[in-house]
Design a protein that fits this description.
By secondary structure, the chain is α/β, with parallel strands linked by helices. The chain has 27 helices and 21 strands. Helix 21 links the parallel strand 18 and strand 19.
């Protein structure tokens, strides 16, 4: 179908090059269609005023308020030594609070004439503090007076749209640009099939666009939002449903375990029974493995819920069926850790081809980038001949040289650390597409899973195995109460005296290379000028001071792989008391004797990351303790985040908090690039029902018409959503 020309028109033709350039560079808007989908963030009522009392610091804001008074002061300065300097102070009010505006120098003349007491206007600027009072310095403003030259339409509406704006382009200028392109909304092709739209009582798309930008009543806004949310949810879910449909058409080799094979032998030697959750999830996985189409399943589990065991049973089922299974881990430390725990769990079943091996044993091979040439050659040979049934490795598994005899299952651990290309390259190594199991210990709210991993079926492990101990978490406010920090180190000593071990986590390594990077990353710079605390510095301070006499070791990502492994082995064997580390220990590290973790500069980490880190303690029979050390003031957002982590061990609850604080980012994989989210109206957390219903509708429509031949407008919308980068992202999902 031809694209809709009116909406594809470049903005520079319609608005002029200068405005178009700012819109493209600062707001990512290039065409008339882009601008029509740049929705107001909120609306001001002409008869009402904004809450000045709630203005966020250091943000660019737009407020509607009334001038209470205006005073012109003269003063002496280096530029105007004879007292000729001029400063205009204007106080505006909204009934809830007052805000000061200041203008200096030659900039005072126009506002002095225009901003008279009683005048109403929109003001835009960056909120700052001067003499403990909020102020806007040199704000841009637009008088609200409904002049004859203003179109009646602009100000007739009682609701003034406030757009996401930038310092270079105020909200009202965006509003005026929209006024110019709004007639084109009539030509917007409606992606929703008519029966669906009418069945749900949604307004047509052109009407929704008019109502969102020029509402006459609050009901107009509700109508428009309900409709536009559906568009976003539905078009995205159609993309994912087509992906699932295409996968379901691919061939795969069914893999069924033998009743007397390696899986049965493994289950017999387990010293404990599986939890109800592990059994249920395993059954879902085995049912998928037995089909003639590739499994695509996401396994979500709380920290310590036994995901690795479930994945290992799936791998052994594939080995039973004559295939090979590969587990892809994000770091060498984690790959080595998995290899150790898998071979320990399997015992003689992992010694295939050796004298001590059990009758139906297989070989478990480790493959990482830093292995010596001989060991590597050996591992590659075992993979190519099929001698090794199970391989665990880092992205070294993806290299061209790596050949499998018959790859049947790929398990990806900690999915969010892998690029889609990497997963795709590994999947390409099977003769037919292998089955795919993606594991994550970062719990994801159900709707996010439906959206981000919408092409995967989801299994959730939310029971902790028997014998796992609870973890107590506390915030240690180091700046307000330094004696709390001293007490934290005493607690570490007490645990070590009981025969346990401790982790101390820092955000930075502390060699010069990463100093510059660390400065850029600091989240709340205003309050925190110093660089983040570093492993090398803290380890030295502790060994000399608070923890003198204890065996303190360090672990970080820039150590040689052999050194890292040696440190982890010593710590696991109890030959070190305290491990001072970066987040390399965040996932998968399993030392049941470690009972306490102190996280320095905890405010520098995200909510999910803190939850992950905390999951490294309390893995044995003794209770765990996690201390979150921060110098941030009590009222700060960072401290509220830490209080949330300390108050609950429910990872799903924390993931909601994390998401609400970060907003969604771009669910189609552009989160890292910092571009605007493709979700403008839909809030993944709040719009759970819309997403679930859109998924059902999308699945039904795609099953009936996979190529959308009968729905050309939906195909156009899909093409717009899936520009090439995103198309590939979903393709490789």
């Amino acid at each position: 179908m031809d694209a809709v020309p009116a909406l594809d028109e470049p903005l520079k033709k319609v608005l002029g090059p200068a405005t178009a350039k700012v819109m493209a560079e600062h707001l990512g808007l290039h065409t008339v269609g882009d601008l029509l989908h740049h929705y107001p963030r909120r609306y001001e009522e002409r008869g009402q005023l904004t809450h000045l009392a709630d203005l966020p610091m250091d943000e660019h804001v737009t407020v509607v308020a009334q001038v209470a008074d205006a005073r012109l002061h003269t003063f002496a300065s280096s530029r105007a030594p004879r007292g000729k300097g001029q400063r205009l102070e204007v106080t505006i009010t909204d009934g809830s609070g007052r805000l000061q505006l200041v203008f200096f120098g030659a900039g005072v003349h126009k506002p002095h004439k225009e901003l008279l007491p009683g005048t109403r206007a929109m003001f835009a600027g960056k909120v700052s503090v001067f003499n403990r009072r909020l102020q806007l310095a040199h704000p841009a403003y637009e008088l609200l007076r409904g002049d004859a030259e203003e179109t009646v339409e602009t100000w007739a509406g009682a609701l003034i749209p406030i757009y996401p704006a930038t310092a270079k382009l105020e909200s009202w200028k965006i509003g005026k640009a929209l006024q110019t392109v709004l007639p084109s909304a009539q030509e917007a092709a409606d992606p929703l099939p008519e029966p669906l739209r009418e069945g749900r009582g949604l307004v047509p798309l052109p009407e929704a666009l008019l109502k969102i930008h020029r509402p006459h009543t609050k009901a107009d806004i509700e109508d428009a939002r309900a409709r536009l949310k559906w568009d976003e949810a539905f078009v995205l879910q159609v993309a994912l449903a087509r992906r699932r449909y295409a996968d379901a058409q691919l061939p795969a080799v069914p893999r069924r375990p033998r009743p007397d094979g390696i899986l049965a032998a493994f289950d017999d030697r387990l010293p404990f029974t599986l939890t109800e959750g592990q059994r249920k999830v395993s059954e879902e996985i085995f049912a998928d493995l037995a089909t003639e189409h590739p499994m695509h399943r996401l396994l979500q589990g709380e920290v310590g819920s036994g995901k690795t065991l479930v994945a290992l049973r799936a791998m052994l089922a594939v080995v039973d069926a004559g295939g090979q299974a590969a587990m892809l881990a994000p770091t060498e430390v984690l790959a080595q850790q998995h290899h150790r725990s898998v071979t320990e769990m399997m015992g003689e079943l992992a010694e295939g081809g050796t004298l001590g091996g059990a009758e139906n044993a297989t070989k478990v091979v480790l493959l990482t980038g830093s292995m010596g040439a001989a060991a590597r050659r050996h591992a590659l040979l075992d993979l190519a001949t099929g001698e090794a049934g199970v391989v665990i490795g880092t992205h070294a598994l993806i290299e061209d040289k790596v050949q499998f005899h018959d790859l049947g299952l790929v398990v990806v651990d900690e999915q969010h650390r892998f690029g889609v290309e990497q997963r795709d390259a590994l999947r390409g190594k099977g003769k037919q597409p292998p089955h795919l199991l993606v594991m994550t210990a970062t719990p994801i709210p159900r709707t996010v899973a439906m959206t981000v991993f919408g092409d995967l079926e989801t299994s959730v492990l939310d029971q902790l195995p028997a014998g796992r101990s609870p973890i107590a978490s506390h915030v240690v406010p180091a700046a307000d109460k330094p004696h709390f920090l001293a007490r934290a180190w005493e607690r570490v000593r007490e645990e070590v005296e009981k025969g346990h071990q401790a982790y101390v986590v820092c955000p930075r390594i502390g060699d010069e290379e990463d100093g510059a990077k660390a400065k850029k990353k600091a989240p709340e710079d205003e309050a925190e000028k110093r660089p983040p605390l570093a492993v090398l510095d803290i380890a030295e301070q502790l060994a000399r001071g608070s923890l003198a006499g204890l065996r303190v070791e360090v672990l970080h990502g820039r150590m040689q792989p052999d050194d890292k492994d040696a440190v982890m082995r010593r710590f696991a064997a109890g030959e070190a008391d305290v491990l001072v580390a970066t987040t390399v220990i965040e996932v998968g590290v399993n030392v049941p004797n470690a009972t306490v973790m102190v996280i320095m500069d905890a405010d520098r980490f995200g909510v999910s990351q803190l939850h992950q880190l905390r999951g490294r303690v309390g893995r044995g029979s003794a209770p765990g303790l996690c201390l979150l050390v921060s110098e941030m003031p009590e009222a700060s957002a960072a401290r509220q985040r830490l209080n949330a982590v300390a108050s609950t061990l429910d990872g799903f609850e924390l993931s909601r908090i994390d998401l609400e604080q970060r907003r969604e980012g771009d669910v189609l994989g552009q989160a890292q690039s910092g571009t605007r989210s493709s979700l403008r109206m839909l809030a993944v957390i709040d719009d759970e029902e819309v997403i679930a219903e859109a998924r059902e509708e999308a699945t039904r429509i795609v099953a009936a018409d996979p190529d959308l031949e009968r729905l050309p407008a939906l195909r156009t919308a899909l093409d717009a959503l899936l520009d090439e980068e995103r198309e590939q992202y979903l393709e490789k999902g």
